[in-house]
Amino acid sequence: MSKKQKFTLEYPVRCSPTILYEFLATSNGLQEWFADKVDDKDNVWLFTWNGATEKASVVEQEQDKFVRFRWSHTGPDEYFEFRIEKTEVSNQTILVITDFAEKADIKDQSQLWDYQVKDLFHRLGN
Question: Which residue numbers delimit the START-like domain (predicted)?
Fold first, then answer.
């Protein structure tokens, strides 16, 4: 099995970091756009899509800044992260997503993120 590669995607967002963070770091927020159902208990997060459930844990987070998850089936160096940044000049909010995928799958994974972020923006009124 080849080593997965890290990739990042950036999306400008028209909302405050505090509101965006609620959609990225809470089970209710993530259930609005990321998965069909999200449950968290004792740092174990269950994400369900079409009846299939994946388990993850939060490995690091900072309020209104970022949250980093690790799937239970991935190695210690792999994660997916939602980071909220502000541009210096325009003070615009940017959602930065970091994920890992096989080199041949990065394009498909990026398109999947694009689709999910589009749903997030719809929920945010963007």
Answer: 1-125
